[in-house]
Each structure stands twice: as C-alpha cells, then as structure tokens.
Design brief:
The chain is of the alpha/beta class. It contains five helices and eight strands. The longest helix has 22 residues.
C-alpha cells in the first residue's frame, strides 16, 4: 500500500457490495463517487470476515449497554465471540496501520459507532450501543477518525471529518519518517 495515498476503510455495503444480512447494499453516492476520486477506499465487512453468510439472519445487540451480546434474532445464536475474534484478527493485520480513517454504516450491530439499538434484559430498547467491530476498532485506535456515512451528508460534518483525516494522515507520515 502506498504510504503517501490516504486510505480510508469503509463498511463494504456503503460501496455497493451486497453483503448486508438481507443480501442488499446501502451504497452511499458521495463516498462511492466523490471520495473515491480523492482517496483509496478499502471495503470491509466485519460479518463476512467472521464467516457469516449472505443473506443471514439479523443480529440484535442484547444485554448491557457497555457490553452487549450479538444474538441471532431467530436462532438466538450468540455470535459475540465469533465477531470479536474476527475483529481482533482484522485489527492485527498490517493494513490497519495505513488507514487514515474508517467510515461506518450506522444502525449496525457490527459497525455502529454510537446510537445502535440495544435490547436490555428488561426488554426495554435503548439507542446507546456501539457495534462489536466498531467498539474494538475505537478501543485499539482511539485517535483514528471515524464517522457514520449518514453524517457525511452534512456539509459541516463532512468538512470536519476530512480535516481530521488529513491531520491524522500527516501524523502517520511524520511518524513513519522519524
């Protein structure tokens, strides 16, 4: 991977890859068309990395806000350890050190960086969760710029994000040159 090119990892469904649980995508035109002209985009799907199929049953986050479990909606299979192990493997790969940012799909039990639905043990639903993969990435790389794709529809948020990406990329280059 070229060290001078900005690399942004992106939830694969946002680039038009049909990897969602329902076999569909959520292509984001600004990312796929405009941003792709300026940076290298690397599609990542944590569920595929974990060996889950397309299509697959939906996954819900259930339990505690700070430590929910990823549970298959129909089968009630606990996929948490499988998703965490896969995230750990992905985040140990050398390419992660070249990422200058990550753009996530919101409302995802793997990729949401905030506001994901959690079903508490009481049955009450709160929107205070973080997806399994996103939580692990942000824990290991707390300075890495991250954003939900939907936030890129706001000009101010998009400009602020890109400013952070450029600053982070410069910092990466400076540390490589030392």
């Amino acid at each position: 991977m070229s060290e001078d090119k900005i690399v942004i990892a992106v939830s694969a469904c946002l680039l038009g890859h049909k990897v969602r649980y329902d076999g569909e995508h959520r292509r984001h035109e600004w990312i796929a068309n405009r941003l792709a002209q300026r940076v290298k985009l690397l599609p990542i799907c944590p569920e595929l990395d974990a060996g889950l199929s397309v299509p697959r049953e939906p996954i819900d986050l259930i339990g505690e806000i700070g430590n929910p479990r990823a549970i298959g909606r129909e089968s009630e299979t606990d996929l948490t350890d499988k998703l965490r192990q896969s995230a750990s493997i992905r985040l140990q790969k050398k390419d992660i050190k070249h990422f200058s940012a990550f753009i996530f799909k919101d409302k995802s039990p793997s990729c949401a960086i905030r506001g994901e639905k959690i079903i508490l043990k009481s049955g009450r639903i709160v929107r205070k969760g973080t997806g399994i993969f996103a939580a692990e990435l942000m824990r290991r790389y707390p300075q890495l710029p991250v954003i939900h794709a939907i936030d890129l529809d706001d000009d101010h948020k998009r400009e602020s994000f890109m400013t952070h990406v450029l600053a982070y990329h410069r910092q990466q280059a400076d540390s490589r040159n030392r």
